Amino acid sequence: MTETLAPSVKTLPAPAAVLELFKPVTWFPPMWAFLCGVVSSGAPLEGRWPFLIAGVALTGPLVCATSQAVNDWFDRHVDAINEPNRPIPSGRIPGHWGLWISILWTGVSLVVAALTGTWVLVAVVVGLILAWAYSAPPLRLKQSGIWGPASVGLSYEGLAWFTGAAVMAGALPSTPVILLALLYSLGAHGIMTLNDFKAIEGDRATGVRSLPVTLGPERAARVACFVMAVPQVVVIALLVGWDRPIHAAVVALALGLQGLAMVRLLRDPRRLTPWYNGTGVTLYVLGMMASALAVASIGKGGA
Prior knowledge:
The radius of gyration is 20 Å and the shape is flat. By secondary structure, it is an all-alpha fold. Helix 3 runs antiparallel to helix 4, helix 4 runs parallel beside helix 7 and helix 12 packs antiparallel against helix 13.
């Protein structure tokens, strides 16, 4: 092994391989949640454009990209079996470059966050800790069907939403904003559980105790649907309590349509999960934006 690694360590990875390592397709969920945070703050864009651009970079090309690089590095042995064409096992990211890139991008994320604001830095620090804890031993949260999806849901939805609101407010976001971020993070646990359906065989073989592995596809799908639905019910109740009945009705409609999609999903979860991800999850994120618009006028960023 030493003979093959020694020369490759001196080889710089191609930019295209690094971009593939960062998985840009995964940046959309946190960037959408960030946009929801921006909208929910109710703050005007004027004078905040540099911070807005920094926030978009943090949620997508920096923190999310870091999490993908970290995950690929610590999963390189599994990927060598299941996905040998991935940048690290294929050798396109040679030697220890996967680890070095993960460390470098962690540092860059922290610097950009520190320049953007105190509360943004707090959110980014928590997000980066979760990114490393999810993939790296000894915690390796991804091995748990509870803590793994929870950490990803919090990072991709809650912290990204919080970051968007904090970037625009320049302060701790309002209580309604924080509540929405937490509730949609909790619901995202169900989305992450459905995402685990595509790797049931690999997870079972490598000891990852995802919910589809431990509960079986049918029960795991029911749990995922329940976890996605309940926080949205709470969101609807909060919107009614905040005197936002139209927005509450929009979220209720989105949830109702999700319910119809869930009924179909539960007939054959393994086959229909990709279909649900394109329909039910889309309705979920549209409800997020409706909720963000609802609270935009409630609090302008003060705690």
